[in-house]
Amino acid sequence: MSILTSPTPAATPAPASATAATPLTTTTPPVTGERKGLTKKEIAADHPTWCPGCGDFSVLALYFKLIEKRKMIHEQITTIAGIGCSSRFPYFVQAHGAHFIHGRALPFASGISLSRPDLHVFVFGGDGDAFSIGGNHFSHTCRKNIKMTYCVMDNWVYGLTKKQTSPTSPLGFKSKTDLWGAVDYPINPMKQAIAAGATFVARTTHTNPNHVLAMMEAAMDHDGFSFIECLSECVEFYEGAFDASNPRKGGVFKEVPKDHDVTNEGAAYALAGDPFPGYFGIFYKNSKPTKNAKEAEIIKGYQSKVTGLKDWQILQKNFDRMK
Amino acid sequence: MSDTIEAAAPSTGAAKVLKINEAVIRIAGNSQDGIQAIGGFLARLAGRSEQEVMTFMTIPSTISGGPSIFQVRIGSGEVLSAGDEADMLLCFYQHSYEDHIKSLKLGGIVLFDADHVVPNPAYEENYRHVGVNISSLTVEAIGGTGRDKGKNIFAMGLLAKIFDLNVPKLLKLIEERFGGKDPSLVANATTCFNAGYMHSLENLLKTFQFFDPEKKDRLQVVMNGNEALAYGLIAAGVRFGAGYPITPWSDIMELLRRELPKYGGMFIQTEDEIAAVSMALGGSYAGRVAVTGSSGPGISLKTEAIGWASMAEMPLVIVDVQRGGPSTGMPTNVEQSDLNIACFGGHGDSPRVVLAPVSVEDCFYTAIEAVNLARKYSTPVFILTDQGIATRIEAFEEPNLEKVCQDISPDFTPVAEHKPYDLSKPNGITQHIAPGTKVLSGKYPIATGLEHDELGHPTGSSKLHSLMTAKRRNKLRQLAWDFPKLKTYGPNEGQILLVSWGSGQGPVREAVDRARSIGEAISGLSLRYINPLPNGLEQIFKGFHHIFVVELNDEGTYGFGQLAALLRARYCDPRIQGITKSDGLTWKVKEILDRARTLASAKA
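Structure tokens for the assembled complex are given below, as produced in the milestone run.
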């Protein structure tokens, strides 16, 4: 029985006693068909514990909108997070989800994505979770191109622990751990994702809801690892951090130029180098086989050699060689 | 070679034939000489001949080459350990000769490569020396390329002659091993073997012949502990796992990476140890118990995520192939010093199950048991093996695979409502439903590491923290009732009880046999369940004056090994004492008995 077996759209029970090594049944999510998607009321769970005015509220609202607009149902979604303010996300979504440990949401989500191709795996987190404690996993999930959508709500500060310097805090930012202002050069998430080999790299900001939704949709439709950096203001510890990108606060919301070639890695990297507030939109998008597809290919190759055999019979062949 | 009987000489030669029960053969050379291959062949042959076999090997932790040994003990009766002293030493170099001659019993045979070894006259009195120009004869046999590759097979031919081994079976094994694209490989190996077998051993007066072993019901399979464990996981229905390379765990991940695709599964090599345990937990969360594993430092790195598994009540199998520690320690040596981290590693109160297989065969069945306990109780389960059991080869009765193989696919049947942390469930036992399962009430569960309510939503309630902590603990208490009743090896009362855990079982049982044969009232107790401990230990302890816990770790600050300390904390029984060592080698039977006798007389 392939582990890639997924529940059918009608969610019929999986055969309980099937032991035959059946070939891969499906690698694509079940089609929703005529089914009605969830409404906001059905998908909203606990009232968020974020501070009033937090940028994360709009990301959550737009996630609900995405689910509604794309007519997704409970059986198709999992929401995964690590640790941080933004990582409280799964509790606010009325769907299957998991709140994992600090920095390790991506490998956890990879385990789900690889074994359950029927699910849309959405991962939410913050800048500390993604680029500091989880930095290693970020690079490797990018390069392995494991299918999922990762939305980093970047607020340039550690909020849950109350104002320490984060890996994206700009130089000179005064925090409790850098009273005189941050001295370490910040990470550029766009550059890092592009250099690591991510196949979908986009940037947006919570103050432009339509743009957030457009990025989420494009990310979800991408067959591969899709990464969104969403600026999300921490009104408590870094108020006004992103004003320069918000036209309502006198800033400029500069979209990625129309003539930018999203498949051009060099051009994408150059866009990412634009000083703050920089560009918003899809910087890089390329189609490469996912790890999910490659593993499925390996399985297909091996299983063609054991067609018709039950699991125990495959194992028996190995044991026969050890006599 | 116990119980030797002189038998009539075979018709073909003048040499006398001795009937023997068992033989311990130590092969010493360098790791690139293929001495593991000879050992492997002998072990396989024993398995196919329904003999019992056990091996012991050391490998250098250098990248390539270095001194290495392989010891194989073959017996017509039960073989419990790799043997204290060798009956025969086969050595390829002067250093192998000098370093290992003392491992021979007095009067034992040393078979040496006369091209490289000059015998030491001081040893010639105590050990029978047989010199053969193994290297040059091998070169001569294959046609003088000047390279002695194949000398291991030549030497195996010599051994086949001396121990009257089954030649057709050995040739078949050679064919299976070397058969493939290049037919010259089998031809060369066969030539080497025959050259060794035909070589005249005129200065050796006797050859040996094993008694016929007891007929076994089922055929035997021959493999090492890592293989048995990995195949056990496959039989148990595990189809997803993740790991990071580290010795001696790597064999398991390599095997699973290679084999799982046949079953529609996969094993992922991750960027680090933390990613490995996290990815495996993602796999478990997705609906089917997954596996991760490691050795030494890798286990330390995984502890935070294992704490999450305790808190989130997520099933997971963690294989710990113990090696010498702490830190990088002695990567290719054996130690049982991870009991504490397996039982208690991590912050907070984080109950988990710890199992310790006692033999290679038991690795197979323990893997299945671990998966089933993880599922039933929704809990992380450690399997504590060690370098010794991982690399040693044993022959054991082939499992009935049709019967033991199981399917653990997730059940996606919609449920009316679901509370993953339902406090009303008896003994705190609950299970998760896999994502993708429809919940008709519309209330969906969250798996979490935060203290939570019954649905998995965070709580700061002190009452809930107490209740949930109790839930996680109580299910382990309940779980102990699933374990089979404990039985002593030997009578259930006497002077000394030798308690072993995991791989200590074999040498302890042999120690008990040896002691009882000379009238000493020593019994053994082998623990496979370390956390929770099985019920009924106090009753067994009552029957003995001394309780000595035999384990391969240090006596620690307070004078007790890791299991001994746990047992003392649990039973407050001052008779519990430790017999420990940390030389990186497996137990010799004599060591155990000497230590037990000394300790008993000191306490008497």
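Chain A touches chain B through 77 residues (CB under 8 Å). The CA atoms of residues 244 and 276 of chain A lie 8 Å apart. Further analysis is deferred to the final report.
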